[in-house]
Amino acid sequence: MKSKIGKTLALPGMTQASTDPLAQAGASAALNLANHFLIAMPSMEDPVFGGTVVYVCEHNENGVLGVVINKPTDMTMQVLFDRIDLKLEDSPGAHIDEPIMFGGPVQDDRGFVLHTPGARYSSSLTVTDEVAFTTSIDVLEAVAAGTGPQRMLVSIGYAGWSPGQLEEEISRNGWLTVGADAHILFDLPIEERYTAAMRLLGIDPLMLTSEAGHA
User: Fold this and answer.
1) In the CATH hierarchy, which fold is given to the domain comprising 36-203?
2) β-sheet bridge partners, residue 39
3) Does 27 have pLDDT greater than 60?
4) Residue 193, burial from CB neighbour count under 10 angstroms (0-12, 13-18, 19+)
5) β partners of residue 175
6) CB atoms < 10 A from the CB of 60, how many?
7) How far apart are CA 138 and CA 133, in angstroms?
8) Which one, of 110, 190, 117, 194, lies nearest residue 158 by Cα?
9) What is the pTM of this model?
10) pLDDT in tens, 186-199
11) Which end of the chain is less crowded, N or C, counting CB atoms within 10 A of the terminal residue's CB?
12) Which family does this protein fall into (predicted)?
């Protein structure tokens, strides 16, 4: 199966006329959690989001777009590149053996890339000066050519919430929220990311009960 990376994304809550999430970056919202981590509370038993940390790329009046950063699939970068007919050289920074994340249940047959900003790609959103979100295949073509970003996370699928949905989940103590740390996003081993995100709040996950409130 060929990857469909680069196709238009459909964020829940968006109208058919404006389904590209990157086209909505200028919209405003009362609560803006872009560049924040969403940390699933221990009480969350959802099979998709339980135990996850989500990096929020965009939050506006049309909803929320994020990527799960600590739920690896059994697919590696090498397998992904084989599927999209790109040759990934085994060279420093090529990420050949790195796992692809399960980014969320939306568009889960397509690839999305969180990476450090630098080169310009055809469909890309700069979230901060440390993190960009790209939906077009040219970022992976750059990686194959040895000119791609050195720090990156590739996911299959993304997480999307319609307007007001995430805020409701937070109010029901489904998620903790904290400003994101690019070191956790790009550098820490996957299995350490949940605990590290919790510690940004000064919380030891082992001491957190399922009845705790949200931050």
Assistant:
1) VC0467-like (3.40.1740)
2) 53, 176
3) no
4) buried
5) 40
6) 20
7) 12
8) 110
9) 0.82
10) 999 999 999 999 99
11) N
12) Belongs to the UPF0301 (AlgH) family.
